[in-house]
Amino acid sequence: MTVTERRPGRAELPPGPHRGPARLGAAPLAIACAGLAGATLVAVLVGPVRLPPGAVLAELAGRLPGVHLRSGLTRQEAAILWELRLPRVVLGGLVGAMLAMAGAAYQGVFRNPLADPYLLGAAAGAGLGATLAIAYGPDTGSWPVDLLPMAAFAGAVAGVVAAYALGRSGGTRSATTLILSGVAVAAFLTAVQTYVQQQKAETLREVYGWILGRLTTAGWREVALVVPYALVSTVLILLHRRLLDVLAVGDDEATSLGLSASQVRLVVVGTATLATAAAVAVSGLIGFVGIIVPHTVRLVAGTSYRRLVPLSLVGGAAFLILADLVARTVAAPAELPIGVVTAFFGAPFFALVLRTSRRVL
Amino acid sequence: MRRSLLALALLLVVALVAAGCGQDGAGSGTAAPAAQGATFPVTLDTPAGKLTLDQQPGRVVSMSPTATEMLFAIGAGKQVAAVDSNSNYPEEAPTTDLSAYEPNLEAIAGYKPDLVVYSDDPGDLAAGLAKLGIPALRQPAATTLDDTYAQLDQLGRATGHVAEASQLAATMRAEIDKIAAAKPAHQLTYYHELDKNLYTATSKTFIGQLYAQLGMKNIADAADKDGGGYPQLSAEYVVKADPDLIFLADTKCCGQSARTVAARDGWDDLTAVRTGGVVELDDDVASRWGPRVVDFLKTVAAKVEALNPAGS
Fold it and tell me: A198 CB near a chain B CB, below 8 Å?
């Protein structure tokens, strides 16, 4: 692979194997953003504690510069809105956006519709990191940042790095080799995690709670942790979305167009891994978002990555905000695990889209 | 002579205790064998059927921390050969690597037990022990105080410490009655935290019934529609309910404390946080329904008394 990378100009791009318009027009993006705004609004207004919608809107508007409104919310109700409900909605949106975008990116670089953000050992690595932190970590009650998200983040990144190193060491750099090494790494890490859990049985409950997703106790601290990674990875993947379309024609064809397939793959996988690791660190393992959202977008809006990546980003945010709304209201004041909701409502919805869409995958 | 008088008195207590818990049936022994005192063979009613012990066991293996605490409390500690890895109380208990979650039959058999006490059977523990001819006594987690008394009585009969067991049960009853008698005038609300993801226990659980002894009201009951007893609450709901007392049963497992609770988003303004109503419990004491439930109740009662003196 000594081909020097030469970014193909816009005019050189091949038509690609995608269906539907390649470029993202204003209309689909506007519709997706309107959906996200609607989901956010409903999620802020509705919760296990009933807050008067008018007062909530007044309270929110009152924080805008130049606006002076008295919402009439009590101090306690204001705390529920600002400290509990809002950060949870924001974090749900960020995590959903990261997972859906990472899923779309993974599917692109591996040309595999079954790829999801956990494909290369990110989930297994994060799980092991979290389990180690819970089982052997020091008491971090006095630390400014919890050890758990850092350990999960490091674990997710380490898992993918190991899979990548293993996938390259054979000499071949094909996507399939990489996926298989991801499978091997994930199996190994999961084995270690299970062993640690057996040794420290008293940690089972906490590990289990973490695996099921942790939006329940989300606060602004978690939002602040995930925002930098979200920004960086979003910008990088959006910049690469055209190259994903090039990659879709095949490694050799992409190379002949002057693109280093393995290099693009490295950058995109690295970036998507950062996004996934950040999401997993603050929210635990929320399944299904990374696979169902990009596919739904594909079926509805076309398969070009120039459309798919941004629409998955927005759609993922809206989907997880709504899923979390269900998780915290359906059995209120009890909670449902968010992973159960994403699968329970996501799978039939996905099936519906699959059946009614005239396009094929 | 004095000895037989004592025995007679104890026999009377045993009969009374047995009559008292005769109602709940499952898991408890019948009164008749109890009246025979420490004689062997003894036949016990277990969830797995009748269990007959031909002679007094001298090498008991306990796979349940609660049973371990009970065995030592009724004076059967010298007969205990090994206890599982989570049995960390009392100090003299012979704690081993035996895992109650993944019981290893060979490892258990290695201690040459003549009685194994366990609470849960995650694999084929009972079947395996039966094949090896090792008597096994299952004592599932108690759901009421009467279950606890019945288990004490059963362990007493199984190990030949009937008198001590009934004495202990009588003392526990008396102490709990005394604590319960000092109910505060004003009903306090409480939230009992099992982990930091806000899993909790309702008033119908064992621990919930203990709080109810003190006339306290559980905030989680509304969240338990399916009746499982251990729902996960929304943070919004806990803040809205604003309990007078917050009991942390996740201090050891998950490092929670009054300080970490106060640091949670939106929790700093809660009544319990402002008035010192966050109580750090010992996870173990707050999850083992054995002799130390009295200690647990004393801790809670002292807090209630401090916040809300009786008759005030």
Answer: yes
Whether residues B265 and A331 touch (CB distance < 8 A) is answered with: no
Which segments of A63-174 does DSSP mark as H helices, in order? 75-79, 86-110, 122-136, 147-169
Confidence of residue A40 (pLDDT cuts 50, 70, 90): very high
Query: What is the value of ipTM here, to two decimals?
Result: 0.76
Among candidates A48, A141, A206 on the partner chain, residue whose Cβ is nearest the Cβ of B260 = A141
Contacts of A209 in chain B (CB under 8 A): 195, 197, 199
Q: What is the least distance, in Å, from the CA of A88 to any CA of chain B?
A: 10
pTM of the model: 0.80
Quick check: B102 contacting A, CB < 8 Å? Answer: yes
Lowest-confidence range among A61-65, A128-132, A248-252, B192-196? A248-252
For B95, the token pair is 């704690």
CB contact under 8 A, B236 and A87: no
Q: What is the pLDDT of residues A196-237, one digit of tens each?
A: 887 777 777 778 777 777 787 788 888 998 999 999 999 999
3-state helix, strand, coil in chain A (%, to 5): 70, 0, 30
At residue B281, the pLDDT reads: 94
Bridge-based pairing of strands B42-46 and B60-62 is: unpaired
Nearest residue, CB atoms, B240 vs list A80, A203, A205: A80
**Amino acid B27: pLDDT:** 39
Residues B178-201, mean pLDDT to the nearest whole number: 88
Residue B133: half-sphere exposure toward Cβ, Cα within 13 Å: 2
Supply the mean pLDDT for chain A.
83
Q: What are the distances in angstroms from CA A227 to CA A238, A310, B42?
A: 16, 17, 67
Joined together, the tokens standing for residue A297 give 């977008």
Asked if A334 and B224 come within 8 Å (Cβ–Cβ), the reply is: yes
Contact check, Cβ <8 Å, B232/A83: no
Report the alpha-carbon distance of residue A180 to residue A182 in Å, rounded: 5
Which residues in A lie closer than 8 A to residue B240 (C-beta atoms)?
48-49, 76, 80
Q: For an interface test with A, which of B104, B197, B268, B269 has the most A Cβ atoms less than 10 Å from its Cβ?
A: B197
Task: Read off the tokens for A325.
Answer: 């709304």
B278 CB-near residues (< 8 Å, 6+ apart): B245, B246, B248, B258, B261, B262, B272
* The dihedral formed by the CA atoms of A158, A160, A163 and A164, expressed in degrees to the nearest 10: -110
Asked if A203 lies within 8 A of B253 by C-beta distance, the reply is yes
Task: Give A297-331 pLDDT, tens digit per residue.
Answer: 988 888 888 899 999 999 999 999 999 999 989 88
